[in-house]
Amino acid sequence: MKLRIGIMLAAVSFALGGEMYAADASACGMFVPRNLEETIPTIRQEQVLIVYDQKQQLQHFVREVSFDAGNGEFGFIVPTPKQPEVAAAKSPFAELRKAYPFEPPHQFEGGPPGSRGMKGASGGGAAPVQVLSVQRVGKFTAFVLAATDAGALGKWLTDNKFQAPPKAKGWLDHYVALGFYYVAFRYDPPKDKKATGLTSETVRISFKTPYPYYPYQEPGSARSADSRLLSLWFLSQSRMKPIAAKARLASVQHVRPWTSGLSYDVSAKELAGKLGGLSKLVPAGGKLVLQTYRDLKTSRTHWGDVLLVPSTPQKLSSEQIAERRWLFPVLDPLLMPEAGGAK
Q1: How far is Cα 49 from Cα 7, in angstroms, rounded to an integer?
Q2: Threshold 0.85, pTM exceeds
């Protein structure tokens, strides 16, 4: 027990204040019906706004994704540390790209490269899979799930016409052990079977977390992307830096997963005219910092999920460590709980 605590404290110190980063360096699991296993859509462009209130420990994850195919049934899963609230949102990304570009405008020309009935458990307290909510978000049906058994979760996906790729089993096991929740999005294809691409609806997923979290780890896929771009804007009360665990041979290193761009000192009043209805998510009072990031990786194999931690080292009390302990395995696999994580 002393050894595990010692490892945990070392991981906290490293994550918050360490300086071993790469100079420069998929966000969900993709699931399809059995008859489409060899045609899993791939993500071409991913645009994300993260708004994080450090005082409330509340994160809003606003995401819009473009896929290379949209003429068949498919779905994707976004894991979250705590039970999420899901809602449709009006896309803020054209305005963000214009007002807060990744790099000075003269260096950046042009744009980026470019429901059926539900089966399964229905919320019983002892059920291994609980369906906490179901709602329509544009072309998608969103299911918020909790699961204590990876096999039962896989069966629920199969029963609802989604077949996880073989390599996804370990991915599901990982998040069930952590005690995470899931937002499962199912796409219902249009009647026009000639459609060749799809931009997902802009979705807001809100949840509590002691550190901003990005679901970066992805299960193995039958297809790899030729090109992929992640554009991310991160808004909070102070500067933070992204850290992820990356497996290299027999070791795990902690590195920065994204390329940093410009950062902006902003105010809630300034953002009100640019974020529209999303401005209500902006933390109230004081100065704010908007940081930009870009990621061009076509594969996220061997990468873990991302936490954003304070840019300057922080000394945590024993109480603060206890409050955050359940999230530490995101950065250090040695700290995975022996049994399912705490909700």
Answers
A1: 33
A2: no
User: For the residues 167-176, what does the mean pLDDT come to?
Assistant: 84
Residue 173's Cα: distance from chain center in Å? Answer: 17
pLDDT digits (tens, 9 = 90+) for 193-208: 555 556 667 999 999 9
In this predicted model, what pLDDT tens digit does every residue of 64-94 receive, in sequence order? 987 765 555 667 889 999 999 999 999 999 9
Distance CA 53, CA 208 (A): 10
Termini Cα distance of the chain: 22
CA distance 333 to 40: 28
The 10 Å CB-count burial string (b at 16+, else e) for 198-226 is: bbbbbbbbbbebbbbbbbbbbbebeeebe
**32 DSSP 8-state letter:** B
Cα separation, 266 vs 277, in Å, equals 17
Q: Do you know the residue count of the chain?
A: 343
Among residues 153, 131, 151, the alpha carbon closest in space to that of 142 is found at 131
3 state SS of 269: helix
Token pair 């994850």 is found at 61
Partners of 65 in the β-ladder: 46
Angular region, 163: left φ>0, alpha ψ -120 to 50, beta rest:
beta
* Span 240-269, average pLDDT: 90
Tokens representing 291 are 């940081």
What single letter denotes the amino acid at residue 194?
A: K
- Residue 233: CB atoms within 10 A of its CB come to 22
